[in-house]
Amino acid sequence: MGLFDFFRKKSNNNELVQETDFFQNEEVKGKEITIEQASPIVRSMIEQLNYPYRIFSNQMTYEEVMKEYEAAFERGKREGFVPVLVPEDETLDEFFGILQDEDNYSVEETLKKVSDNGKEILNKRFEEYTEPYEDEPFDMEEFVGEVTDGEAITHFSSLSNYSDGSMLETILFEVPTKNPWEVVAYVPFGGWNDCPDVEDMTAICKYWYLKYGAVPVIITHDTLEFRLPSQVVEREIVDVAKEHYAFCNDRVDQCTSTGTLGEVADCIRQSKIWYFWWD
Predict the structure, then answer these.
(1) Closest by alpha carbon to 182, among 85, 82, 274?
(2) Structure pTM?
(3) pLDDT for the residue 18
């Protein structure tokens, strides 16, 4: 029995949920693999979550994976699920095991605790990150800087190895919910260092989905990537940059050349993908 059995779609004999047999074309079908062919880590991740799934081999191209995701997203609207891509990730697999063995994690109980306080959580985190240090005032004007130097994010980064760019073996889970923001509770991570815990992360994702249409697309143990139906309007980009920093301070501290919110705001202005990485 897996980690989140309250929500499983099981067979009558409680066996592992089967691979979905939906394929877009024969070329892609040839690059999908069975659970027997998958890596031990991917097999373990599937067994622990136990949602309907497909496995894309590392021979699939980025474009092929995203085409299958888009088709699954549309099919999910009709069939009542939300797809999410989860690349092979040993640390995330270990985290699922910790949740099961030590924390007795429950999707149901987590979602019961989630309220409409995502904006308040972000405001509090932002205040904590920008409070004066040793009586030195925080220079907000300098921290915001100029809204310039940002680059558009045009593709998702977490499907490939950072070292050589090769594609990772990736699971497409069909998460049994109609609410995209709930995906981070069904495929949980976080709660270490400055990464929000699952409950806060879910509340923030709910707020961003309702306000901006932001949908979680890819989850790893230390990255979360969203897509939006359109870019954020100009008048809101600095405020959204503050929210991004509150959610993940590494978005500014390690992912910009200027160390300013303005660079992040300029990126947000141009992008329909949001990327977060916690060091």
Answers:
(1) 82
(2) 0.92
(3) 57
**Exposed e or buried b per residue across 74-109, where buried means at least 16 C-beta atoms within 10 angstroms of its C-beta:** eebeeeebbbbbbbbbeebbebbeebeeeeebbbee
For residue 10 the two structure tokens come to 């099981």
Residue 113 to residues 102, 116, 185, 203, Cα–Cα distance (Å) = 20, 10, 11, 9
CA 194, CA 271: separation in Å to the nearest integer?
24
Output b/e per residue, 154-178; b: 16+ Cβ within 10 A.
Answer: eebebbbeeeeeebbbbbbbbbbbe
The model's pLDDT over 57-70, given as tens digits with 9 standing for 90+, comes to 999 999 999 999 99
Question: Quick one: pLDDT at residue 186?
Answer: 98
- Reading the block at residue 136, the tokens are 């030195």
Q: Where does residue 27 rank: exposed (0-12), middle (13-18), buried (19+ CB within 10 A)?
A: exposed
> Edge to edge, what strands does the sheet with 82-87 contain?
32-33, 53-56, 170-175, 82-87, 215-219, 223-227, 273-277
Confidence of residue 192 (pLDDT cuts 50, 70, 90): confident
Instruction: State the sign of the Cα–Cα–Cα–Cα dihedral 223, 226, 231, 234.
Output: negative
Band of pLDDT at residue 12, cut at 50, 70 and 90: very low
- Here the tokens at position 188 are 């949980």
Total Cβ atoms within 10 A of residue 246: 23
Q: Which two tokens stand for residue 171?
A: 């699971």
When pLDDT is cut at 50, 70 and 90, the band that residue 137 belongs to is confident
Average pLDDT over residues 117-141: 92
Instruction: Give strand pairing partners of 33.
Output: 55
